[in-house]
Design a protein that fits this description.
By secondary structure, the protein is mainly α. 70% of the residues lie in helices and 3% in strands.
Length: 441
């Protein structure tokens, strides 16, 4: 007969979560090594990253504008891992390791946001969430971005809840460091942080009780956290900015030099893709999976380069002013494609498409709907309660993502990294932590 201590261990939810996590690790290893080897899926963006990594190895760091259309963090990492023989084996191994770390990072985010019960639930969900498994088996930035984005906001939320100033500062600096790595993978990480800190600032302006301290006093801790987060992010972001600006012929850029092209791609009508003018013989063209799934067939050629942000933005605004109603509808299409699209790229065009479709249904039913339900429950007590709630703060990066895709283009793949916030909120709702923290019905 087991002792009371053994029975207590066996009944503890953490044991079940550990078993689910180990199952998820086994699935990741088996899927990536035996069924979905990353080296077998080198095309489109995957091919671009590998090709740029090879150029980085061959050119000793001499880059040109067409090399920095995307952040340099992932190509530089791939180049480093391929430097010993040029094989993708070490890249695939690291993808597995990072994919296995993502559920643990979700646990930290859940603990920082709502508490231990949410953390355990988030680890379990992330362990078996197919999109995280899938992007761990592709030579893409997503799984790395997910890890660093999750760690960054775990630090920022931990800094908010820390009782001691020193701990809060340390967590803010750590969050800033993690954020810089996230931005080195995808520039949208910066926009997510801006959204998060903007919502925090808004909450500081809203007194929760009559007779609260002046807004300047309430805003001071926020300003301190922002400052130290910036300190943590500055070293790597400074290096990225120098490399990107140098490659971009002296024109400043931080994590990619084509925001104007992204704007035009999303607001030039119902187009399949755009082919930009060659830059010193280098021809670049991009389309959107959302456009592909909507069966758009118009192919556009423009007389300026992809990195000419002024010309790209001017062309987009010209179309918007000429078609204001259609522009609004296109922005709504981008939002719809991001949150309710058919499935994530590139999986919808591979033999694993049923899992991509099912994971999208699972997102809508088990993550999106509970997040909306949680917000509605808090909003019943008024806008002030919602805007100052922990739930709204956790979801604030999603609002920043929504603004980004409305301006540019949208697809499910863009949303997947931000599912970490939906997972945490859904788990907090299920285990009762939202009712405890935010008082939601």
């Amino acid at each position: 007969m087991p002792s009371p201590r053994v029975r207590a261990v066996l009944r503890h939810p953490a044991l079940g979560v550990l078993l689910v996590y180990l199952f998820g690790v086994a699935v990741r290893v088996n899927y990536t090594l035996n069924f979905h080897r990353p080296a077998d899926f080198i095309s489109s963006d995957m091919g671009m990253y590998v090709a740029l990594a090879r150029r980085l190895m061959e050119s000793s760091g001499s880059l040109m504008p067409w090399d920095v259309t995307h952040p340099l963090g992932y190509p530089a990492l791939v180049a480093f891992l391929m430097s010993d023989g040029g094989s993708l084996a070490r890249v695939a191994d690291l993808q597995i390791v990072v994919s296995c770390l993502v559920p643990l990072a979700l646990g930290l985010l859940g603990a920082a946001a709502f508490g231990r019960r949410t953390a355990l639930c988030a680890v379990a969900v992330a362990s078996i969430y197919f999109p995280f498994i899938e992007y761990g088996a592709l030579i893409l930035t997503e799984i790395h971005f997910i890890l660093w984005l999750t760690l960054a906001f775990a630090g920022f939320l931990g800094a908010v809840g820390a009782r001691r100033r020193g701990v809060s500062i340390a967590l803010a600096v750590g969050g800033g460091i993690a954020l810089s790595f996230a931005i080195s993978m995808k520039a949208v990480g910066l926009i997510a942080a801006v959204g998060f800190f903007a919502v925090q600032a808004l909450a500081a302006f809203i007194p929760k009780t009559p007779g609260a301290s002046p807004w300047r006093v309430r805003l001071a801790p926020w300003a301190l956290r922002v400052a130290f987060a910036a300190v943590g992010a500055a070293p790597l972001l400074g290096m990225l900015a120098r490399a990107c600006t140098r490659a971009n012929r002296g024109q400043f850029c931080l994590a990619g030099n084509k925001p104007g092209a992204d704007f035009l791609l999303g607001h030039d009508g119902r187009i399949a893709d755009i082919e930009w003018a060659p830059d010193e013989g280098h021809l670049l063209g991009f389309g959107s999976p959302g456009a592909y799934l909507r069966h758009y067939e118009t192919h556009v050629k423009v007389p300026f380069t992809i990195t000419d942000n002024a010309a790209n933005s001017a062309a987009a605004w010209h179309w918007i002013f000429a078609h204001p109603f259609e522009a609004i509808v296109l922005s709504l299409d981008h939002l719809y494609d991001t949150f309710f699209g058919v499935a994530m790229w590139p999986t919808f065009s591979t033999g694993w498409w049923p899992y991509a479709h099912l994971s999208q249904y699972a997102f809508v039913v088990f993550l999106f709907v509970p997040a909306v339900f949680a917000c509605v429950g808090i909003a019943k007590r008024g806008a002030r309660a919602l805007l100052s709630s922990r739930t709204f703060l956790v979801l604030s990066p999603v609002l920043a993502l929504a603004l980004t895709v409305a301006i540019a283009t949208g697809e499910v793949r863009y949303r997947i990294p931000f599912d970490v916030f939906f997972i945490v909120v859904a788990c907090a709702l299920v285990v009762g932590d939202i009712a405890r923290v935010d008082g939601a019905a």
